[in-house]
Specification:
268 residues
Length: 268
């Protein structure tokens, strides 16, 4: 199995590009699954540079309905005619930051309606690949809803509790790997949900941990909670923030903590 980061805020490597967003390509011998698309079509340019063919991807999983994870979907459907797009219906709601700035899907979702598969329950989309759509809140301190809103049909703003958020679990060799987009409902809650569902050791926990704007007290609580898990490898990206990545690396004793930048490839 190979996981390549196609979009992140941080990039190393000649002719590769970064942006505020997230996108991973997961490859096995018989499956290619894209997780999120970043905020634009740059993921496809990076894929081409790395010798990866977007037209061969079998499925696209969308973590939640923010522009920096969905903005590349239009480019994806141009280049790929076969893959279903797995998403929760709530991801199509109008999402705002601070009730002023629209941060939802940045195009008319009707354009891709025929490609969408709405996830309502745990779903195995390929052998060993499970989408988990229900993230239980075990640790209230590890939720990231501040200044996030949904606009309803009456143009009223309600707090966004990210019921659209889902994550991917990959079973491999008697272990599980957890892939999250932004972890608005909390990476510790996502990990505990995965453990409750599968009761297997966690090899990799990859994704954005949404710590970049968190205060020191909350961040340390999350670090303490992560230290209680036996996660072999923690690969952070995007909304985690470089400064918070360094805190995780210095304070999490049980895990190999690394930053998962554009062009990085994990093989296992």
């Amino acid at each position: 199995m190979k996981i390549t980061t196609l979009i992140d805020n941080v990039v190393y490597g000649k002719n590769l590009f970064g942006e505020h967003g997230f996108c991973l390509l997961i490859e096995t011998d018989d499956q290619k699954i894209l997780f999120d698309t970043g905020r634009s079509g740059i993921f496809a340019d990076n894929a081409k540079t790395l010798g990866l063919d977007i037209s061969e991807i079998d499925a696209l999983v969308i973590s939640h309905g923010h522009y920096d994870h969905t903005g590349g979907i239009e480019k994806f459907v141009e280049l790929n005619e076969k893959a279903a797009i797995y998403i929760k219906k709530e991801a199509l709601l109008r999402k705002y930051k601070s009730k002023t700035t629209y941060i939802g899907i940045p195009f008319d979702s009707a354009k891709i309606e025929k490609r969408l598969v709405y996830i309502k329950e745990k779903t195995e989309i390929a052998k060993g690949f499970f989408i988990i759509p229900d993230i239980k809140i075990y640790n209230v301190f590890d939720t990231h809803f501040k200044n996030m809103y949904i606009q309803n049909g009456q143009n009223e703003f309600i707090e966004d509790n990210f019921f659209d958020e889902q994550f991917l679990v990959i079973k491999n060799g008697g272990k599980i790997n957890v892939v999250s987009g932004c972890s608005h409902r909390g990476i510790t809650n996502i990990v505990k949900t995965a453990l409750a569902e599968f009761n297997l050791p966690i090899d990799y926990a990859l994704g954005g941990y949404h710590l970049s704007d968190e205060d020191e007290t909350t961040t340390n609580k999350i670090i303490d909670a992560l230290n209680k898990f036996d996660i072999a490898h923690i690969g952070v990206s995007h909304c985690t923030g470089i400064d918070k990545y360094l805190l995780l690396k210095n304070k999490i004793a049980k895990s190999d903590v690394f930053y998962n930048w554009v062009g990085n490839t994990i093989s296992f």
